[in-house]
């Protein structure tokens, strides 16, 4: 059974039960009220009937007048004499029973009570009232006034019909309202269930537009947020999958090329007629490609540690200028051979970070600067900035076009793939730089224009 049907039946049954209970109680209450009012009325009427009957003259019109009194009052009247014999009864209807003798026990009761006595037994179909009469004008001594309870209950037939008619009309309206209300209540629930099912089946584009300020509206908003989160996660997963696929393709390509070169060099070295100069050339080629694979492996290990090792860096205070000097000493000769002036700031600076990883950052930046600078100079500049030390590696090289800046730090991304491989690059140097600096809560910034050189910079916390 659907939730809409459950809601409708619940409302219908509850309201029908309520309406039926109220209607039944109303009828029962009205019955009791009518009988109570009937008792009061027959007592009052018996009092004036007693006065009226005891003042009737005993003549030929006595029974006529007595019958007129009964007709006017609507009661059955029986009159007994002092001996307790039936003196008269009206109206003259065969189904009206009146005892020929007045109840002796009732005589004693009325003598003591000196008032109207009411008799309404639960099993009886009549209400009876008794009174004593004075015998100044006629021999009547005792009065019996009675009325059938059905006469008292007569109005309730109309009332019952009105109540039952209203009850059935109300039940009809209740059924209609319950169906409409259950649809109104269940509609957002069904929409939420449908949306949740679609989202669970992978349709993360599904959205709910419930213009409501209640709990359903809040739940719809939460589902929309969840779907949006799923969409973002799916897009991120797709991006990571594409990036990973490209990453593995690049690794395969990067390794295949040097391996082919090494294989070709080894084949040439197997030739007995190969001259010594050529043999030396192929040996150097194979050695360079082997070193290239080794650098690629080291860069991959660094990136893998950054991705998975929470202890990727070990921060401590160290002299930044000392670290820079190590890098400059390493590349001074290579820079001089290309006619590049390599200079650096030699002021003492204490910073907080991993000295080995920061040296690797500076090493990669200086190495790239030398590779892509044919003349001019490379400067490693250090400045103080509000509790931080800023490091700039500035060159006068070929520069970088603006369309490459956004992807410059992606793994295996090259602005000029052919030239980069000729220079022995792995395509991971700048990705390693970004990863190390990210672990230091820093970032690498770049400013560059084609033909005007580049400025790579990052910041470290002062020690």
What do you see in this structure?
This protein is an alpha+beta fold and 463 residues long. The chain has 3 domains: 3-156, PAS domain (Beta-Lactamase, 2-Layer Sandwich); 204-309, Signal transduction histidine kinase, dimerisation/phosphotransfer (DHp) domain (Helix Hairpins), CATH 1.10.287.130; 313-462, Heat Shock Protein 90. 58% of the residues lie in helices and 16% in strands. The protein has helices at 3-54, 62-73, 104-113, 149-152, 154-200, 215-269, 276-308, 320-337, 355-371, 402-405, 417-422, 429-439, and strands spanning 76-81, 86-90, 117-119, 126-132, 140-148, 316-319, 340-344, 350-353, 376-385, 388-395, 445-449, 453-462. A hairpin with a 6-residue loop joins β3 and β4 (126-132). The two termini are 71 Å apart. The model is unreliable at 417-424 (pLDDT under 50).
Portion in beta strands: 15-25%
Please count the helical segments. 12
Share of residues in helices = 55-70%
Under CATH, the topology of the largest domain can be stated as Beta-Lactamase
Question: How widely separated are the two ends?
Answer: 71 Å
Q: How many strands, which pairing sense, and closed or not: the largest β-sheet?
A: 7 strands, mixed
> Any idea what the shape is?
rod-shaped
CATH class of the largest domain: Alpha Beta
**Radius of gyration from the CA trace?**
57 Å
Q: Number of domains in the coordinates? A: 3
Name the poorly predicted regions. 417-424
Overall mean confidence score, pLDDT: 80
Which features does this protein show?
463 residues; alpha+beta; Helix Hairpins; Heat Shock Protein 90; 3 domains; 5-stranded antiparallel beta sheet; 12 strands
